[in-house]
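Students often ask what a holo structure prediction actually looks like on paper. The answer is less mysterious than it sounds. You provide the chain, you provide the ligand, and the output is a string of discrete structure tokens encoding the 3D arrangement of the protein together with zinc ion.
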Amino acid sequence: MRNLLNSAVSGAAIVAQGLFAALFPSDCRLCGIPLENISRLPVCPSCLLAMQLISGETCDICGERLPGLQRLSDLQTCAACQEARPNFAKAAAYGSYEGDLRELIHLLKYEQVAPAAGALGKMLGEAIDKLGIEFGAVLVIPVPLHSSKRRQRGFNQAELIARAALKQPPMAQAELATDVLERRRPTVSQIGLTRPQRSQNIRGAFQVVHLNGVSGRNILLVDDVLTTGTTASECARVLRKAGAKQVWVATVARTLKNSTASFEIEPEFETAAQSS
Ligand SMILES: [Zn+2]
Ligand SMILES: [Zn+2]
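The corresponding structure tokens follow.
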């Protein structure tokens, strides 16, 4: 009873908070300037405008930034993809996982600013555009969280962003599936691991639970951030093993080599520092 009462009270508090934010504009949560307009998303237009598409030449498979500004061949790939091709056909991201874009993702994930999903969903839509795929028969699968993590956070950010992206016209025909792929165990930190160790670490973490849901289908896997690509590649591996035809990957952001804030931390593992 007490729990019920508590959750009713905190539910009411969240609604009241949202209402308050809508009626009384606050400061931009990213740069701190006072917001002029009433908006559900407490981020100013210039911060949103600063979140740009990745520029320059990128790997045709994983989307990593390549040195050099000119396209040298029809298929250009980074050294990592040449060494070991990922299990997905192609991955595309909207922007670099740093600065304001990183902060916006954190607002959604760690501070429960739900309206951030709308802005991130639009960016995911642009990443999906880069893949140049037909939406008719595509099954969209958000990378799942482990049930313990989902309970702790209360939502899967990849799913919220995917739902926002699918509200846009060309993608409205695509089908969203949140119950075919499951994360069977929480994965441990990938920090400091070599590429083969990372693959080993994540192997067996995902399972397709509805085989007939993916057999013969083209899949678009979506997530908020792609870091090393190991997670996406492992998801693609199990989906293809379950009979999926092609697997593409779209994310809002991606860690890039030569960016000002390049690091190899799976975003999932920043939680401890961010949620306090
Ligand atoms: Zn701002
Ligand atoms: Zn690559």
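The beta strands are 90-96, 138-142, 175-176, 181-183, 206-208, 218-226, 247-254.
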